[in-house]
Structures are given as structure tokens and as C-alpha cells.
Task: structure prediction
Amino acid sequence: MKTTLLIKEIYLEAFQNLGHHLIKSYFKAFSWFCFASFLVVLYAFIFRVTTGFAFD
Result:
């Protein structure tokens, strides 16, 4: 029983901050992706406006 509790404690310590780091990294990557997508859309809109595209 002592070995099982020791393994459980080691497991909890090893992965205690892992979830927070993964979530933080995921949201950071997602925010950069959204920002880059917004810039692409803004560029396409400005390109269409400057070339005289008819928005009918």
C-alpha cells in the first residue's frame, strides 16, 4: 500500500503544472493564429477595395 501511495504522489507531482502549461501554450498559439487570420482578411479586403472590386 505504501508503494501505491508513493507512485500516486510522484504522478501527481509530475503532472501538477503540466495541464496549466499546455492550456497556456494552446491559447497562446490559438491567439496568434486568430491574429494572423485577421490580418489576412484585412489584407484581402484592402486589396479588393483598392482594385475597385464591386461589392454587389
Observations:
- The two ends are 74 Å apart (CA to CA).
